[in-house]
Amino acid sequence: MPFSSESDLQRWLDSATEAALSAGAVLQHYWGNLTTIDEKGRSGDLVTEADRSAERAVMAVLERHLPADHDILAEESGVIRGREAGLLWAIDPLDGTTNYTHQYPFCAVSIGLLAEGEPVLGVVYDPIRHELFRAAQGLGATLNRRPIAVSTTDQLAQSLLVTGFAYDRRETPDNNYAEFCHFTHLTQGVRRGGAAAIDLAYVACGRLDGYWERGLSPWDVAAGVAIVREAGGQVTAYDGAPLDVMSGRLLATNGHLHSAMSQTLGKIRPLVLPDLP
Ligand code: IPD
Ligand code: CA
Ligand code: CA
Questions:
Q1: 216 CB less than 6 Å from ligand 1?
Q2: Is the shortest distance between the CB of 51 and ligand 1 below 6 Å?
Q3: Domain extent listing, the chain
Q4: Order of strands across the sheet with 189-192?
Q5: Which residues are CB-contacts of 250 (< 8 A; sequence separation ≥ 6)?
């Protein structure tokens, strides 16, 4: 691993927390007070002054605290530093922009650290509910500084799941609609939160039992994956193979439901998408 000790991780966790709280204050400031909402090319993929200003707030803190050889990938500015030292920060200054523009209170700042591609640290801050989810490898997962753990639900029929639909859903048959319908039949319900980072954080603290989605970016999931794993959950590719956060697709569960969800996803895909890999 490209870091030497747990104390490195603890220090970086504290810096990421400071950055997330600072960006959270920006999001609170613009809540209900937006003057610019733009589309980023793809229909429905929005960006606002709150996204951009929150990203500047994250960067100001991280640049003050982090070693110069850490790489940074931030959603609104792209790669800000890239030295390929093995440590990459993946930053989403506002996850849930669509919710935010409607004042639907489900959004977060998400700051994750990947060590050679593996999520090892995450901070997800919901500035509306004032909920701060944090974790680092070997240090446990917390919500507002109290330890959290995944749920114990072990039957799909008793589970509450969550998923999402990517911005390319109108252009691809791989739009997740069939999977959504199928799991809706099998479970107590499937939610569509609209903020991947919070969806993962809710699996980590046991409010939800499982989450799957495609079309995701590394900044959507880096932090949340670290938090789910430290809370005792499991995160893989749909088929149970090791997760590649760059693949855009993941299955996160409390562990007990992992193989049932993976098998279900494996059965549905070839039915609806016979020509896709
Ligand atoms: C989006 C949210 C949403 C997910 C999309 C993401 P954004 O992030 O996480 O839940 O379904 O795929 O792009 O655009 O609000 O930062
Ligand atoms: Ca996002
Ligand atoms: Ca975003």
A1: yes
A2: no
A3: 6-147, 156-267
A4: 189-192, 160-163, 210-213, 250-253, 234-236
A5: 211, 212, 213, 216, 221, 225, 235, 236, 237, 238, 243
At residue 81 the predicted structure's pLDDT band, cuts being 50, 70 and 90, is: low
CATH of 156-267, one of 3.40.50.150, 3.40.640.10, 3.40.190.80, 3.40.630.30: 3.40.190.80
| Domain 6-147 shares a fold with domain 156-267 | no
pLDDT at 80 over 60: yes
Which pLDDT band holds residue 261 (cuts at 50, 70, 90)? very high
pLDDT digits (tens, 9 = 90+) for 37-48: 888 877 778 889
- Of 94, 216, 219, 245, the residue with max ligand 1 atoms within 8 A of its CB, to mutate for a pocket test, comes to 216
CA distance 173 to 126: 32
Average pLDDT for 239-249: 97
DSSP, res 111: E
Ligand 1 touching residue 92 (CB < 6 A)? yes
Q: Is 224 touching ligand 1 by the criterion CB < 6 Å?
A: no
Taking the CA of residue 100 as reference, the ligand 1 atom at the shortest distance is 15
Of 131-135, 157-161, 254-258, 272-276, which range is least confident? 272-276
Q: Does domain 6-147 have CATH number 3.40.50.720?
A: no
